[in-house]
Design a protein that fits this description.
By secondary structure, the chain is mainly α. The chain is built from 8 helices and no strands.
Length: 161
């Protein structure tokens, strides 16, 4: 990959990678760091990565970096004696997007990431498999389970009140 192609990758994919990282990490600073790290890794391997495969490489890097960040934050919180996921009940009105986001946060990491790649970023099952290292049938199963969980969460009377 040439320097021009690398710059084109930055123009084409930086926003998508940032949105993906932000959805996974829920922290703008971590998401920006994630994007920066992904492009740094791409530049280090720019001679080995073909321009046609750059998008897949970048999203794979973003996925792995986000998982690493989540695990690191989880260890920090456990070390500090706090719970990683907080559950709270609200008796007031909640926006639909807010309810969906809360339900997505309850998903296991792998289900959350494949669901975000499929429904928010529009990747095919095959592309998601390449990014996450899963086979296509595993990707379909995780997406199905995630959607089933979300359906149960969203029709729960506790979430609607």
């Amino acid at each position: 990959m040439t320097a021009e192609e690398f710059n084109r990758c930055v123009d084409l994919y930086s926003d998508s990678i940032y949105r993906f990282a932000l959805k996974m990490l829920k922290n703008t600073d971590l998401a920006m760091d994630n994007v920066q790290d992904c492009f740094e890794r791409l530049w280090v391997k720019h001679r080995e990565v073909d321009f046609a495969k750059a998008k897949s490489y970048l999203f794979t890097s973003a996925y792995h970096a986000a998982i690493d960040s989540i695990r690191k934050e989880k260890r920090k919180l456990e070390y500090a004696g706090e719970a990683f996921f907080e559950t709270s009940t609200s008796n007031g009105y909640s926006d639909a997007k807010e309810i969906v986001d809360k339900a997505i946060e309850k998903l296991p990491e792998i289900q959350k990431s494949v669901l975000l790649l499929r429904d928010y970023e529009g990747y095919s099952y095959e592309e998601i498999g390449e990014i996450t290292g899963l086979n296509e049938s595993q990707v379909k199963v995780y997406i199905y389970r995630a959607r089933l969980f979300l359906k149960e969460q969203l029709v729960s009377i506790d979430n609607l009140i």
